[in-house]
């Protein structure tokens, strides 16, 4: 069994903490049941179910710390993992940035668990694969994709009396559809807390349509263009930018939020006034655990307020050093938007480029958040509110900090996950002017 009840999880954590003779002890217990199905070339290739559970124990003697893990939870194994952590702590050098275990926290439960999602069966996973494979095979297209569903729990405790427990569940789906000649490619992805909101038929039709329409792509000269960025296309860029919302990086001059001569941009307006982003563990569409990896309680936090930098994350050490209050690091990102769909943004565009997805994103310059990457799986030229023809993919060099100052219109936010981030995000499709494409790519 990998999904322990709150009572059983607390009993294991209490045993670990009681077994320690260190100055302090913290422990986390987490487990998951994850089902999956993978398909390619219109055939299922793998299907499986993975159960896992781990106990991690961290102890401290003064400023010396040690951590050990185990997946065995009998009394002898618990005592053994604590002893190993203590032995490692005694061998470790003192940590000059050591912070003691957190005080007792108050956690308000968030709606991270959904009964339907937790009850997904192998038959359901097979039906998702079939719903993608069968229409593609019929239309001489080729589908490749992956569907996973999971139910999890996490429990945390320490020798200062802190304890938290919560269950969660989610589903993740991605599918790429190619034409038989390999000249056209369409892509779709979906991440949801409630599998009841998943419409695989609608999603696969979108991917199939893009695959067919992207055949015989034309070359468009690189340069600056008005672009319609679908939510999946912007999520990767924005998640990279959010890594920089760290107070220490900004204070030490290593971030685009660093001021010349010292200090940071907290309180400064750096983006279009329509840009508002917040973190909210209790958001109905994107709930996350009410504590972060260190066990600190999360709060509802406005990160960017109408273009103004309203929040930087202070680690416990940096908060102590700077005389600030440390709070839990955000686990999600909700961006304000409008009411329009991607299709409606296209209808209002005289000339531009529709980008389905960005891929292989890498940092070029952290002090300006300049990123490079590629478009992929459906890039189209727009004229007079219509998709006129497919175009070859581009490499782009663009900073999301600049992108969010070049907004023409925002659509309705949808739930996505950034490629380089575990953040759950609610991100709108965006109409952006002067987006920089630097070269062409032959990949479809």
How would you characterize this protein structure?
This protein has 444 residues and is of the alpha+beta class. Helix content is 23%, strand content 39%. It contains ten helices and 19 strands. The strands form three sheets. Strands 3-2-1-4-5-6 form a six-stranded antiparallel sheet. It has a six-stranded mixed sheet with strand order 10-9-8-11-18-17, covered by helices on one side. A hairpin with a 6-residue loop joins strand 17 and strand 18.
The proportion of residues in beta strands is: 35-45%
- Residue ranges: pLDDT <50 for 5 or more in a row? none
Outline: globular
Strand tally is 19
Please count the helical segments: 10
List keywords for this structure.
alpha+beta, 23% helix, 10 helices, single chain, 444 residues
Short characterization:
This protein is of the alpha+beta class and 444 residues long.
Per-chain topology:
Blueprint: H1 6-19, E1 24-40, E2 43-61, E3 64-70, H2 75-91, H3 115-118, H4 122-138, E4 141-158, E5 163-179, E6 185-192, H5 200-213, E7 223-229, H6 231-242, H7 247-251, E8 277-279, E9 301-305, E10 308-309, H8 316-322, E11 332-335, H9 342-347, E12 351-365, E13 370-383, E14 386-390, E15 393-398, H10 400-403, E16 407-410, E17 414-417, E18 424-427, E19 430-441
Parallel strand pairs: 7-12, 11-18
Antiparallel strand pairs: 1-2, 1-4, 2-3, 4-5, 5-6, 7-19, 8-9, 8-11, 9-10, 12-13, 13-14, 13-15, 15-19, 16-19, 17-18
Helix pairs in contact: 1-2, 4-5
């Amino acid at each position: 069994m990998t999904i322990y009840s709150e009572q059983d999880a607390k009993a294991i954590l209490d045993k670990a903490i009681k077994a320690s003779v260190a100055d302090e002890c913290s422990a986390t217990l987490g487990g998951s049941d994850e089902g999956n199905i993978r398909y390619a070339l219109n055939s299922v290739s793998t299907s499986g179910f993975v159960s896992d559970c781990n106990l991690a124990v961290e102890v401290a003697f003064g400023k010396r710390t040690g951590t050990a893990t185990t997946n065995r939870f009998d009394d002898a194994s618990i005592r053994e993992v604590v002893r190993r952590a203590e032995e490692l702590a005694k061998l470790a050098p003192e940590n000059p940035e050591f912070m003691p275990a957190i005080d007792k926290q108050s956690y308000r439960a968030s709606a991270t668990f959904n009964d339907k999602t937790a009850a997904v069966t192998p038959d359901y996973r097979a039906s998702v694969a079939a719903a993608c494979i069968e229409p593609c095979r019929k239309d001489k297209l080729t589908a490749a994709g992956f569907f996973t569903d999971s139910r999890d729990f996490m429990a945390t405790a320490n020798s200062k009396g802190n304890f938290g427990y919560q269950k969660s569940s989610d589903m993740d789906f991605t599918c790429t559809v190619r034409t038989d000649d390999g000249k056209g490619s369409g892509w779709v992805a979906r991440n949801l807390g409630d599998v009841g909101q998943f419409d695989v038929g609608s999603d696969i039709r979108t991917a199939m349509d893009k695959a067919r329409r992207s055949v015989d792509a034309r070359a468009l000269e690189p340069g600056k263009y008005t672009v319609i960025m679908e939510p999946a296309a912007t999520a990767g860029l924005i998640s990279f930018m959010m890594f920089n919302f760290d107070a220490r990086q900004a204070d030490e001059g290593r971030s685009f939020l660093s001021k010349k001569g010292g200090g940071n941009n907290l309180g400064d307006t750096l983006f279009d006034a329509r840009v508002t982003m917040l973190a909210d563990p209790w958001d109905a569409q994107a709930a996350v655990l009410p504590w972060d990896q260190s066990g600190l309680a999360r709060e509802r936090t406005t990160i960017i307020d109408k273009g103004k930098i309203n929040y930087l994350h202070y680690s416990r050490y940096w908060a102590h050093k700077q005389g600030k209050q440390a709070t839990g690091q955000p686990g999600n990102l909700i961006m304000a938007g409008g009411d329009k769909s991607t299709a409606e943004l296209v209808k209002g565009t005289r000339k531009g480029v529709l980008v389905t997805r960005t891929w292989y994103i890498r940092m070029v310059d952290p002090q300006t958040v300049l990123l490079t990457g590629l478009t992929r799986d459906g890039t189209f030229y727009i004229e007079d509110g219509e998709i006129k023809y497919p175009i070859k993919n581009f490499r782009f060099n663009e900073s999301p900090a600049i992108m969010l100052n070049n907004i023409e219109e925002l659509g309705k936010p949808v739930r996505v996950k950034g490629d380089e981030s575990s953040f759950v995000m609610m991100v709108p499709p965006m109409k952006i002017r002067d987006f920089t494409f630097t070269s062409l790519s032959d990949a479809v």
